[in-house]
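Input record (one chain):
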Amino acid sequence: MRILVTGGCGYIGSITAKELVDQGNKVVIYDKKNNQEIQDIELLEKTLKKEKIEAVMHFAAFIEMGESMKNPFKYFDNNVVGSLNLFETMRKTGVNKLIFSSTAGVYGNPVRVPIKEDDQKQPENPYGESKLMVEKLLKWYDKIYGLKSISLRYFNAAGATLDGKYGENHKPESHLIPNIIKAAIKGDKFKLFGDDYPTPDGTCIRDYIHVLDLAKAHILALKALNDGHKTDVFNVGTGVGYSNKQVIEMVKLVTGIDFKVLIKERRPGDADELVADSNKIQNEFKWKPEYSDLKTIVKTAYKYHNKVGNFNNC
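The corresponding structure, as predicted from the sequence alone:
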C-alpha cells in the first residue's frame, strides 16, 4: 500500500513508518524537516497525486502542552488549520483513508479512571483542544465526503526501538522519561513539576505506552479501514498508571544512577491522572501491548539515549 506519513521524521511517525516499510508498504515521508509544510496545499496535492497515495497517517502536530498555554495561535494554526488543509486536499485527490494521531489530552481531568472513549471531553490546554477539534472535523468529512478515519488517542508514548536506534529526543524535550534519563546521564538535578496533586504520592499519574506497541496500533487501525471499518476513535494505553515519582525510581533502578530531584511549581494545563481503558481497541483490533511494562520502556529509552547524541530520522 502507498501511504503518506505526515510528521514522518518525528518520534512516533518515524518508528511507525519503519514498521510499515518492514511490512512491505511504500511509505512517503512528508515532514517540516524536509521543508514540507502541512499548510502548503499546493505541495500536498502534488505529493498525493505524484506518489499515488492510497492512505495517510497524520502525525504532524505541535505537542507541548505548556507551550500551548503560552502560544495558542501556534497550536490552532498548525494542528487544526494544517489538518483541515490536509483533509481538503485528500478530498480533492480522492484519498479517503486516514489514521489520526490524537491524544488523551482531549479528556482533560477525567471524571473517572480508567477513561473510556465516550467519557466527557474538557481539554485543559489548547493542545488537547486542537486535537479534539480535528477529531470533530474528521466526523464531518466522513459524513459529507466519505473520508474514513480512525483517531488514536495516545496516552503517554515512551520508549525506543529494541536496538536503541530510534527513540525520543524532541528539541525542546517536554516529556518526562527522556528528561529524567538525560538528567541521570549528565549528572544534573531533575526538575519535577509539582508534588501537590491529589494522587497517592502527590505527583501526576500517567499511562505509558511503548512506541512499538503504538506503531502496531496504527498499522492495525489502517488494516481495519481497508477492511471497511467505520470512522471511529480508540484509546491506546495499557490501563496501568505510574506516578512521576515511580518513574523516577524506575530510572534510578535501570540506570544504576542516583540523582537529585528538584521540586518546581506545577506546569499549567497538566491533568492529575490519565489512565486508559483500552478494551475497545483490544477487542476490535486484537491489539495487545507487548513492550509497555515500565521497566522495558525505561530500558529501551536508556539504551537509545546512552548511544545516540541527536535525534534525526530524516
